[in-house]
Amino acid sequence: MKIAIVGTGYVGLVTGACFAEMGLDVVCVDIDKNKISKLKEGIMPIYEPGIKELVDKNVAEGRLFFSNNLVDVLDDVSVVFSAVGTPPDEDGSADLKYVLDVARTVGKNMKDYVLLVTKSTVPVGTAPKVRAAIEQELNKRGVKIEFDVASNPEFLKEGAAIKDFMSPDRVVVGVESERARSLMEKLYKPFMLNGFPIIFMDVSSAEMTKYAANAMLATRISFMNEIAALCEIAGANVDEVRRGIGSDKRIGTSFLYAGAGYGGSCFPKDVQALIQTGKELGAEMNVVKAVEEVNERQKEIVYKKLKKAFNGDLKGKIIAMWGLSFKPDTDDMREAPSIVVINKLLAEGASVKVFDPVSMEEAKHKLGDSVTYCENIYFTVKDADAIALMTEWKQFRLPHWSQIKLTMRGNIVVDGRNIYDAKELKEEGFECISIGKTHKL
Questions:
Q1: What's the rounded Cα separation, in Å, for the pair 402 and 315?
Q2: In this structure, are 321 and 235 located in the same domain?
Q3: Element holding 96 (H helix, E strand)
Q4: Can you tell me whether residue 116 is helix, strand or coil?
Q5: What is the C-alpha to C-alpha distance for residues 286 and 29, in angstroms, rounded to an integer?
Q6: What residues contact 84, with CB distance under 8 A and at least 6 apart?
Q7: CA distances for 310 relative to 116, 138, 382, 426, angstroms
Q8: Are 150 and 118 in contact (CB under 8 A)?
């Protein structure tokens, strides 16, 4: 069976490589000729652990191909996955331009039945628009060809995307016909044999499931950050609170970590889109609005703690920032809290020296020469007045504090991800400021 994946970004490339690994013949399509050329040379457009090895393997074994023209491959496939971008508009709603472009291309060029599966995250109600776009092009041609539209939202975590695809918690599939369901069952048969749950539902429910899932996870993060703020005032420890409530099986421990706020390509965009969808349909999403408001405030928390540590005066201070990506194991800096903190610090007259294991090149595109880029964390701390930990990369967990102390001017460590023990750092001569903790040392 041969399928096409349109879009070779994070979702499309992982989906294509993983389906190829399961034995399907896959053509990944992208209008960006430079990106396709690089993929053919084995150069990945994204950072994701294991993706290069998986792509190289399946290209070598003749199951994974790349093209910059969907029309060229449309006759050879009966299933097309649309994994193009849905960037937010100014009002926060998802821009469906690229999704509808794919639908129109299919409608203009299909000669036989096609199942168009939306893999991109799209608002509920997108499927009828996709169907209308295809029908409009078929009507222009004066032909009647059967087709189906389906929804198969992705639930991939950056940094663990391959594992998530190959061993999913669930696969959600929205279909409108038995023919579409049969094709999707065939595609996902290896997963069904391995016992992973395939949940079939109507298309609108599948579209909503994706947004509801991300909004729920974002809600847990913002909730814990609000609890963390209260803990600091009340003299409690948010880590102990997390252990206490997380032991309740109805709650669990996932996404209950206080920190500097969430970022990335999914949560901010999807929360905003869900708010806008509710507004358009007359259902105010008050809880989700609060989630976004809390997160926007939380992105400033490291900056605020630094400013307080220096009695409100950051002018001339040198801040060493550890981590730039919104989470470990990715170079993604979209909506990253680090950007907010850096801009705030610079506006106060501070200087910032940065290091991140994989996102330094991405940082240069976003920050230019406004910060000093360093080779490792030890270069960042030379003459620094404070350290700001923004991303909990594993290599930051056990730094050589004695070495850092020799070259650092100050002794402040603002732990934006709560990975350090304040007592241990005090013994090393540092003052550790965490999120949601009143240190009683």
A1: 27
A2: no
A3: none
A4: strand
A5: 39
A6: 6, 7, 9, 12, 98, 99, 101, 102, 120
A7: 57, 66, 18, 18
A8: yes
| Token couple for 330 | 């990715």
For residues 285 and 310, membership in a common domain is answered with: no
CATH number of domain containing 13: 3.40.50.720
The token pair at 224 is 């814990």
> What CA–CA distance (Å, rounded) separates 209 from 274?
11
User: Using one digit for the tens of pLDDT, what is the confidence trace for 86-116?
Assistant: 887 777 778 899 999 999 999 999 999 999 9
pTM of the model: 0.91
> Would you say residue 343 lies in a domain?
yes
Q: What is the separation of C-alpha 12 from the centre of its chain, rounded to a whole number of angstroms?
A: 14
How, if at all, do strands 372-373 and 2-6 pair? Answer: unpaired
Residue whose pair of structure tokens reads 């504090």 in the numeric block = 401
Query: Among 28, 266, 374, 432, which one carries the catalytic annotation?
Result: 266
Last residue of a domain, one of 154, 178, 201: 201
Q: Which of 80, 78, 204 is nearest to 151 (CA)?
A: 204
292's tokens:
């976004």
* Whole-number Å distance between alpha carbons of 355 and 320: 8
Instruction: Identify whether 18 is a catalytic site residue.
Output: no
Summarize pLDDT for 148-196 with one digit per residue, the tens. 999 999 999 988 999 999 999 899 999 999 999 999 999 998 887 778 8
**324, 336 contact by CB (below 8 A):** yes
Say if residues 7 and 85 touch (Cβ distance below 8 Å).
yes
Q: If we measure between CA atoms, which residue out of 152, 160, 158, 146 comes closest to residue 188?
A: 152
- Per the DSSP assignment, residues forming a β-bridge with 237 are 437
Q: In the 8-state DSSP scheme, what is residue 174?
A: E
Across 64-210, the runs of DSSP E, i.e. the strands, are 64-67, 79-82, 114-118, 147-151, 171-174, 198-201
pLDDT of residue 441: 47
Mapped onto helix, strand or coil, the DSSP state of residue 390 is coil
- In the chain the first and final C-alpha atoms are separated, in Å, by 64
Instruction: Please name the residues in contact with 45: beta carbons below 8 A apart, sequence gap of 6 or more.
Output: 8, 9, 13, 35, 38, 39
Q: Is the same domain home to 235 and 173? A: no
Domain that holds residue 231: 211-296
List pLDDT tens digits, range 186-239. Answer: 999 888 777 888 999 999 999 999 999 999 999 999 999 999 999 999 999 999
Note the Cα 248 to chain centre separation in Å. 27
Beta carbons of 94 and 59 less than 8 angstroms apart: no
Torsion angles phi and psi, residue 416, rounded to 5: -75, 0
